[in-house]
């Protein structure tokens, strides 16, 4: 890997074309392929920008979703190949991007010191040799592709007949990735989907070639060790190797939040660190046997890396995670929303993010998936949602239907953010109130109404930013922007250049020098305690299952706090002021945790 950090997937639009912006500098990033309408629109835009022939793949074509995704990924690969070729054929004398490539490198990268030698040498012969050597060392970043496993709607043809399972949303997207020319990693997130995993094993590109190499790799994004083990073992039995475990904090992240039962990032990474070798060997034994049944003989275990992401904010945190937990890469997500050179955020949303304070970022019930979602109060989509409620027209028109999941009112699934659903649900609430089947106090009715109307349209909102940024919105198209940055974004208070952010990651500068920001671990503990507190408040008379969940959540948090105390005592010297501050903060959070159950 060129860099020791990566840019994870950021909603739909925000990292949809990040590889075109950063891969030429060796930086890997992930794109979401949930929305094939978005990929097709962006393919048209970037094809025109790069003088590439574009031919529309119509929505009603056979296997259109997979074809669109393949075409988009292939286009990105072609553009990046040209970018890299241009760098290698250019000269340091006339190409700032060539200098940028090497300036961004981590100090420990072998090319970085060679580049410094190049800059200071006056010997023309040596300078030419160094330039040739340096250009031969240029490697692009990866185009990683993210699929939310459980966002897998079954589709119908134009006559309304159900299509075969292989044309479901996630399966078609997977096929689109498999058929593309890119050699990179598929990031599977949001839990296990056995049908999708079984289909993965039907695609030959995920098996090793005669040299034992994998052209298409699989990464599991997970929030605990047990889930990683179960999913990886399932895939290994199918002959699929997990090349990366991408560990994400359940709550200290952007997008959807999976709190599990209070498992904190540090103890989870410790478990991976302790079991890394044994896990790899156990999985390889299963994998090797599964391949042998397919007449594929593999003697050596493929590489397997472990990365982490969620709430990382300083170069020191990056270094600690890499060094102590022996990680291979750290994901920096939300801070890159403030880097226009790396992500695609429309000007209005970018300005709102840059001037936001801590209270503007919150964990919401906005997602139609029924999973907590990090939200941004100043987004135009949030303003539009409130405006619709005020006008008595709660909910949004449902056009893309990627997140349909509810069958309360018909056999046809609908989205809980849709106008049809929310209108029907509000009428049902009125009827229940008239029949005295529910508590009709003003407070309870307002609470129930809020639960219904809190859902927002993510299919449109998470794609709109790209349409605004590139001025390709269609007439009468809804361009209200949804965005779901992590709470860590609050500490970054302006826009940044790519060079600034990368220099911050590698401790060459400190963008948060004068910012009062607790450590990644303290921030995460506070988020978990707040989550538990709200869960208890919303379930004042818990049933047995809820009591068990609260008890388990509390104990896991307590174990995590004690783990961090032991860690601080082990790695920080007594005279280190950071040690006392950290221990005092841990004790404060421990007391708060105890008071919740008292």
Descriptive account of the structure:
The chain has 598 residues and is an alpha/beta fold. Among the domains are: 5-121 and 136-336, TIM Barrel (Alpha-Beta Barrel), CATH 3.20.20; 518-598. The protein contains 21 helices and ten strands. The chain has helices at 18-22, 36-49, 64-89, 96-103, 110-120, 124-136, 169-178, 194-200, 225-237, 265-292, 315-324, 347-354, 380-390, 419-434, 442-453, 458-461, 464-469, 498-505, 520-538, 544-571, 577-597; strands at residues 5-6, 29-32, 143-148, 185-189, 217-222, 242-248, 305-309, 329-331, 361-364, 373-376. The chain has an eight-stranded parallel beta sheet with strand order 1-8-7-6-5-4-3-2. The protein has a two-stranded antiparallel ribbon with strand order 9-10. The longest helix has 28 residues, at 265-292. The two termini are 49 Å apart. The mean pLDDT is 95.
């Amino acid at each position: 890997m060129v860099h020791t950090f990566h840019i994870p997937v950021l909603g739909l639009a925000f990292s949809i074309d990040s590889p075109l912006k950063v891969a030429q500098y060796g930086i890997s990033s992930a794109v979401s392929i949930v929305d094939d309408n978005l990929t097709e629109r962006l393919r048209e835009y970037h094809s025109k920008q790069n003088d590439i022939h574009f031919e529309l793949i119509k929505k009603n074509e056979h296997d259109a979703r997979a074809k669109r995704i393949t075409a988009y990924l292939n286009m990105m690969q072609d553009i990046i190949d040209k970018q890299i070729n241009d760098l290698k054929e250019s000269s340091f004398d006339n190409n700032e991007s060539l200098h940028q490539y090497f300036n961004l490198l981590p100090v420990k990268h072998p090319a970085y010191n060679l580049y410094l030698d190049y800059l200071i040498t006056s010997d023309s012969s040596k300078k030419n040799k160094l330039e040739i050597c340096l250009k031969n060392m240029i490697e692009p970043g990866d185009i990683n592709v993210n699929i939310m496993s459980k966002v897998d709607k079954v589709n119908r043809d134009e006559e309304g007949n159900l299509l075969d399972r292989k044309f479901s949303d996630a399966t078609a997207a997977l096929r689109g990735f498999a058929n593309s020319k890119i050699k990179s990693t598929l990031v599977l997130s949001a839990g296990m989907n056995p049908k999708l995993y079984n289909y993965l094993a039907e695609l030959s590109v995920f098996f090793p070639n005669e040299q034992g190499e994998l052209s298409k790799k699989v990464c599991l994004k997970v929030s605990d060790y047990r889930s990683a083990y179960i999913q990886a073992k399932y895939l290994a039995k199918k002959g699929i190797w997990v090349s990366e475990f991408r560990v994400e904090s359940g709550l200290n992240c952007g997008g959807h939040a999976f709190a599990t039962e209070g498992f904190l990032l540090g103890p989870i990474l410790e478990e991976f660190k302790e079991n890394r070798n044994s896990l790899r060997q156990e999985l390889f034994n299963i994998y090797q046997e599964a391949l042998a049944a397919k007449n594929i003989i593999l003697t050596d275990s493929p590489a397997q890396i472990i990365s982490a992401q969620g709430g990382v904010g300083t170069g020191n945190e990056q270094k600690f995670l890499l060094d102590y937990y022996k990680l291979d890469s750290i994901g920096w997500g939300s801070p890159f929303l403030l880097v226009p050179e790396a992500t695609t955020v429309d000007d209005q949303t970018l300005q709102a993010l840059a001037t936001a304070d801590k209270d503007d970022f919150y964990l919401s019930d906005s997602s139609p998936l029924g999973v907590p979602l990090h939200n941004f109060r100043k987004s135009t989509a949030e303003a539009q949602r409130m405006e619709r409620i005020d006008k008595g027209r709660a909910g949004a028109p449902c056009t893309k239907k990627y997140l349909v999941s509810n069958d309360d009112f018909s056999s046809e699934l609908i989205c809980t953010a849709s106008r049809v659903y929310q209108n029907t649900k509000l009428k049902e609430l009125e009827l229940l109130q008239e029949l005295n089947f529910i508590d009709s106090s003003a407070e309870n009715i307002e609470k129930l109404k809020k639960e219904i109307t809190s859902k927002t349209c993510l299919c449109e909102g998470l794609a709109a930013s790209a349409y605004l940024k590139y001025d390709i919105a269609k007439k009468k198209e809804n361009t209200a922007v949804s965005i779901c940055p992590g709470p860590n974004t609050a500490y970054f208070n302006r826009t940044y250049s790519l060079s600034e952010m990368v220099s911050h990651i590698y401790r060459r500068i400190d963008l948060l020098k004068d910012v009062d920001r607790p450590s990644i671990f303290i921030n995460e503990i506070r988020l978990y305690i707040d989550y538990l507190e709200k869960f208890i408040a919303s379930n004042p008379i818990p049933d047995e299952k809820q009591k068990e969940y609260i008890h388990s959540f509390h104990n896991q948090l307590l174990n995590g706090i004690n783990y961090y105390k032991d860690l601080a005592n082990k790695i920080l010297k007594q005279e280190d002021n950071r040690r006392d501050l950290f221990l005092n903060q841990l004790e404060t959070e421990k007391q708060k945790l105890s008071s919740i159950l008292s």
